[in-house]
Specification:
Blueprint lengths: L5 E3 L12 E3 L18 E2 L14 E2 L1 H6 L15 E3 L10 E3 L2 H9 L7 H21 L16 H9 L2 E2 L2 E2 L6 E5 L2 E5 L3 E11 L8 E10 L6 E8 L8 E4 L13
Parallel strand pairs: 1-2
Antiparallel strand pairs: 3-4, 5-6, 7-8, 9-10, 10-11, 11-12, 12-13, 13-14
Length: about 260
């Protein structure tokens, strides 16, 4: 069974046995264990197309925290909101959220998406807010086994062959892998896949560098789309790449595919 690292909206699930837990900053921009002072900046490898107006550059912990006040956007770059319902008072009016700061505060208090429309829209928030939380909690790595900070094409083809999108596993037949900046395009007979490298750092506190990545996949000739966020890992110089999903990226997003 593939290991999954879980990002928890609040502290309730932090003690889950056998789960690597990342904690989302709460309303005071602190983790459940208190605020962490970053040893260095975290550098984005490309523009971050999950919240509004985030260009590729290096960010301090304070600057990453401020991104929580940016508008969440969909795959077309358009603003997206989600209406959340009070956890116990059905007479209370729903609250419309547009930023990770708003979403995290209401989620911390138990507000939730009630309608199927808002459940679809919430996927954009769990994804964007989870990525921001992972970036804010990242640390400088003590070791790295990526050549020039990225995998090579053969490694990416091997990695992609074992990845699953919905019910489809690509397999290793006829795969191609091309890189343009921080974005990989993986071609196969079954699917079109894009893998976006977001940043390099130690995201799971093991001392080894991982690549935080966002994936998007759509069947050839189809309209369904599958989105995921996770860590591309290479733990030794000889090790094959692995992709460990972060649980907040498991939802199918609203909107068009690739």
């Amino acid at each position: 069974m593939q290991m999954m690292k879980t990002l928890v909206m609040g502290a309730a699930a932090a003690g889950a046995a056998g789960v690597a837990v990342l904690t989302v900053p709460d309303r005071d921009k602190e983790t459940a264990e208190g605020s962490r002072v970053a040893a260095s900046e975290i550098c984005l490898k490309d523009d971050l197309a999950l919240v509004e107006g985030v260009s590729a550059k290096c960010f301090s912990t304070e600057e990453l925290a401020e991104l929580r006040d940016r508008q969440v956007v969909d795959s077309e770059g358009d603003p997206v909101t989600v209406s959340l319902t009070h956890p116990t008072d059905m007479s209370a009016a729903p609250k419309e959220t547009r930023t990770c700061a708003e979403y995290s505060e209401l989620s911390f208090d138990g507000w939730y998406a009630l309608t199927s429309r808002d459940m679809r829209r919430e996927a954009w928030f769990t994804r964007a807010c989870g990525v921001l939380a992972a970036l804010a909690d990242a640390q400088p790595a003590k070791e790295s086994f990526f050549t020039d900070g990225s995998p090579d094409p053969e490694e990416m083809k091997t990695l992609a062959a074992g990845m699953q999108f919905g019910e489809v596993t690509l397999g290793d037949g006829g795969l191609g892998a091309e890189k343009d900046g921080a974005q990989w395009r993986i071609s196969s007979d079954a699917m079109r896949v894009q893998i976006h490298e977001i940043a390099n750092a130690d995201f799971d506190n093991d001392g080894v560098e991982e690549i935080l990545a966002f994936t998007a996949a759509a069947p050839q000739g189809g309209t369904a789309a599958f989105y995921d966020t996770g860590l591309i890992e290479k733990d030794t110089a000889e090790a094959a790449l692995s992709f460990t999903p972060l649980s907040y990226g498991r939802e199918k997003a609203a909107g068009p595919g690739l």
